[in-house]
Amino acid sequence: MNKVHFTLQGKGGIGKSYVTSLIAQYYQEKEAPFIAIDTDPVNSTLAGYKGLGAQRIELIEKSKINPRMFDQLIEKILSTDSNFVIDNGASSFVPLTYYLLENDIVNLLTENHKEVVVHTVIAGRQALVDTLAGLDSIMTSMPEQTTVIVWLNEFFGEIEADGKGFEDMKAYQRHKDRITGLVHLPRQSSETFGWDMEKMLEKRMTFQEIRMSEEFSLMSKSRLHRVKTSAFEQLQLMM
Hints:
The chain is of the alpha/beta class. The chain has helices at 16-29, 70-78, 93-102, 105-111, 128-141, 170-175, 190-203, 207-212, 218-236; strands at residues 2-7, 34-38, 55-56, 60-61, 64-65, 83-87, 114-123, 147-153, 160-161, 164-165, 179-185. α7 crosses α9 (218-236).
C-alpha cells in the first residue's frame, strides 16, 4: 500500500521542511518510489532541494489561498502509483486541515488503498506551547485511521516544561494511544553538529549530495551521516 505523508503544524520555523526532506530521503535511500510536493505558499523550502526533485503546487490565487487548488494535489495522488511526501507551510496549515476534513480526504485515500500518515513537529523553548497546541488540534480533528508520527526537534532547546519531558506532558498523555511513534532529533553541539546542520539546511542539500560534495570536510560528512542514520533507524520502525 502506498503512503501519503503530510507534514502539518501551525507554527512556522520549527523544522517542518527538514522533517519532510528526511522522509523523502528515506524513500530515496531505500530506492522506493516517491513524489515530493511543496505546498508552502510563502517559503517553498522543500522545492529548493534539487536532489529530491520536489514539485510545487501553487495555492495562491489573487493574493489569497484558494483551497480548491488542493484538488490538484489529491487528484494527482489518486491517479499515481507512488508514495507521496507533502510539505505544508504554517500559513496554509488551517486551509489544508479544513480541506482534508471537509472533503473527507483521509477516508477517500484509504478507500483507494493509500495510507495517510501525518507528521507533526514539537519544538522546544518558545515554540513548545504553540506546537503542543498544533498537535492537539491535529489529534482531535483527524480521523482515527490516520497514522500520526510526532517528531521531537530539540534544535532550539530541550522539550520540557515544569520538569516534565514530552511523554509526561498532558498533550501526549491525552493522545498517546493514537500516536504511532516518536522520532527524536536530539540537540547537538552548535560548534560541530550544529554548524554542519546549518550549512546543510542553508544549501538545501541531501545527505546523498553531501557524501559526494567537496564543500564538506570528512569530519562534517561523518557527523551528518550519524544524524541521518539515527533518524532513518527510527523511521524504519514506523514505515
